[in-house]
Write a structure and sequence with these properties.
The chain has about 240 residues and is α+β, with helices and mostly antiparallel strands. The chain is about 30% helix and about 35% strand. This is Trehalose operon repressor.
Length: about 240
């Protein structure tokens, strides 16, 4: 059986999803919720904290808890798509800000992920992605320099994949992905509009060319209130 605070969390979430509590509505006060569910203040606060961490409400000191817009952008897990392709399809106003672009010999952990020799270089690219004026994705890319010899800030602002496929004539074939939820870091808070979110969704991708060469490792960090990670599965 779920803990009481999880049951309350699920009950309030159901009311949000079914429109009983709508966007910008103020939730009942902690005192009212305590009476409604016959629980302690600590239990109510645990439920509200999870709702906030998962992007369903915003708690404002002295004012209460307000329902956020839960319409999230579908982010495909199984496909190999660029940020530009996703936002173009959604018809959203988006912007890419290149925070760092440098050709380096990577630290050992990145070198190991990309299966590189000690002398191999990579392009380190840090980009923030804004949707409707809010910075909600931090992308940290490491692209093997022997496959992509030249990169510019302009290319990274537009679409790295378009450049690789259309200009360099390489074929991007597939990717392996890992998805985790982690505590936010100081780097996340520096680059993203994190509001009061304490968790972030991290998608690590290993991307391969059609000759099975591993050419890119990406760590993509997403604010939790803006995305639903979707996949299509077929039973074999």
């Amino acid at each position: 059986m779920d803990s009481k605070y999880l049951s309350i969390y699920n009950n309030i979430l159901s009311k949000i999803e079914n429109g009983i509590y709508q966007v910008n509505d103020k939730l009942p006060s902690e005192n009212i919720l305590m009476k409604e569910y016959s629980v302690s203040r600590d239990t109510i606060r645990k439920s509200l904290n999870i709702l906030e961490q998962n992007g369903y409400i915003q708690k404002t000191k002295g004012k209460g808890s307000f329902v956020l817009d839960i319409n999230k952008f579908n982010f495909p897990v199984s496909g190999v798509v660029s940020f530009k392709e996703i936002t173009d399809k959604l018809g959203k106003c988006s912007e890419t800000i290149v925070e760092l672009l440098d050709c380096i010999i990577p630290r050992k952990s990145i070198s190991n992920k990309l299966e590189l020799a000690p002398e191999d270089k990579v392009w380190e690219i840090i980009r923030t992605r804004a949707i409707d004026g809010e910075k909600v994705i931090l992308d940290k890319d490491y692209v093997v320099e022997k496959f992509v010899e030249n990169l510019s800030e302009d290319i990274c602002k537009k679409s790295l994949y378009e450049y690789v496929e259309n200009d360099l004539g390489l074929k991007i074939a597939y990717a392996k992905k890992e998805i985790t939820v982690q505590m936010t870091t100081e780097e996340d808070k520096k680059y993203l509009d994190m509001r009061s979110f304490e968790m972030i969704v991290v998608v690590k991708s290993y991307t391969y060319l059609d000759d099975t060469s591993l050419f890119q490792y990406t760590e993509s960090r997403h604010r939790p209130d803006k995305f639903v990670f979707v996949d299509f599965a077929r039973r074999h």
